[in-house]
Amino acid sequence: MSWVSDYQYTWLQKLALNALQISGHIPHHIAFVMDGNRRFARSKQLDKIEGHSRGFAKLADVLRWCLDMGIREVTTFAFSIENFKRSRDEVEGLFNLARDKFAKLLAEIERLDEHGIRIRVLGNIELLPADLQRLIASAMLRTEHNDKLFLNVAFAYTSRDEITQAVESVLQAEENPDGEDALLPTDINERLLEACLYTRHSPPPDLVFRTSGETRLSDFMMWQIKSSVLYFTQVLWPQITIWNFMAGIIAYQRDRSRIEDFRSEQRLHSAQLAKSSDFYSLRVQKFLHKLDANRRKLLIALASN
Ligand code: FPP
Ligand code: MG
């Protein structure tokens, strides 16, 4: 299958993978910033787009490793809204790659079902060409019943845009003060905004893994990663090996205990905030239900365009 490779492990790799599963906590959710595709291409005298294509092939290996390790959720940064500023050729090349991969995904959908993989594209997909919107919406709808591995592809995404969209959703509900779903100003707090993000159904990443030696966060999941372990490696994305991947897991296992107290405090704070505000009121829950329904309606409209 093109999205999850048939990676063949050596016995030593299998042994190491098992040892990691036994020795420590396996992250529930990993977010990858797949950086370094063009530097890789340059170093091999390849075209940029070939670099991105090798990057996608690496993503398929990484998904296989995640599945076999028991990781339940993977988020990957595939196209930032900032990337629209790249040359027309590169942007079009990336869109063609995405068209090809989403079309293949739909053609081999039974294999995704077998693995129970649900695809969610996080981002402002209306910024994309209509045919790509259609493929993305179809992939999301077609896999929505799967629940073993959640694969979130951040495409046309930045955190600033995600937060802006969340605020807009809240404002739209406030605009209609006489409507039954109207929110009250006192309903608006960080718990509500968090529930309006594209990641509203995901726990925050436990580990953020960025390749290519860059130690920036590049406007990626800025809201969600306040207590995630950050792991940076020098290796360029298309060149990462299972050993680099496992080094990231070991770093997470080492650092997790230090941040776990902080994380449980955060969870408690969020739960208290939800309880002390009207987060569980019928009004707010109706609003969130409608938000989901509207997002799904949009996907159905895009898929049939
Ligand atoms: C960053 O490397 C990578 C990207 C901007 C694109 C990543 C996209 C893929 C791997 C394909 C994903 C497609 C789907 C459908 C999931 P860079 O271009 O910034 O390289 P550089 O840092 O060496 O310049
Ligand atoms: Mg880069």
Automatic annotation (TrEMBL):
GO terms for biological process: polyprenol biosynthetic process. Its EC number is 2.5.1.-. GO terms for molecular function: ditrans,polycis-polyprenyl diphosphate synthase [(2E,6E)-farnesyl diphosphate specific] activity. CDD domains: Cis_IPPS. The keyword Oxidoreductase does not apply. It holds the Pfam family Prenyltransf. GO terms for cellular component: dehydrodolichyl diphosphate synthase complex; endoplasmic reticulum. Keywords: Magnesium, Transferase. It catalyses: n isopentenyl diphosphate + (2E,6E)-farnesyl diphosphate = a di-trans,poly-cis-polyprenyl diphosphate + n diphosphate. It comes from the Eukaryota. It is an enzyme of class 2 (transferase). Belongs to the UPP synthase family. NCBIfam families: uppS. This is Alkyl transferase. It comes from Drosophila albomicans. The gene is LOC117578074.
